[in-house]
Design a protein that fits this description.
24% strand, 5 strands, alpha+beta, single chain, 33% helix, five-stranded antiparallel β-sheet, 124 residues
Length: 124
């Protein structure tokens, strides 16, 4: 009498070792991916937002120093609560960075703007 095992992903019969759970590497990978999506939800959300923020900052900061309205970045999906590190200049202003792209919130005649910069060696 033999126990017939089926793959938990696709339902096909599993052949091979007695402790084998999946019919193929592809099904094993699918299972691991789905489990990661469930167990690492917060990490994946933060990582996704950091990537969005970096892409947006890179898009608008071609020259290494740019001033842009805050609302323009927010419209594109930028969220200033997500950043990787910060740098404080001699004036005491704190630039928040998403990897190599930084931003500083400024008020200019009642309008909120961001100064966008690129990380420089002297900032270490």
């Amino acid at each position: 009498m033999t126990n017939v095992k089926t793959c938990p992903v696709c339902g096909t019969i599993v052949k091979g070792r007695s402790d084998k759970k999946f019919c193929s590497k592809k099904c094993k990978s699918i299972e691991q991916y789905e489990n990661r999506q469930k167990t690492e939800v917060f990490y994946l959300q933060v990582d996704r937002q950091l990537k969005v923020n970096r892409r947006i900052l890179k898009k608008y900061n071609k020259s290494g120093y740019t001033v842009i309205r805050k609302s323009k970045l927010i419209e594109e999906g930028f969220n200033p609560k997500y950043f990787t590190h910060y740098w404080k200049n001699k004036k005491g202003e704190v630039y928040l960075f998403v990897y190599e792209y930084g931003f500083l919130k400024k008020n200019d005649n009642g309008k909120e703007k961001y100064i966008l910069v690129t990380w420089q060696d002297y900032m270490n």
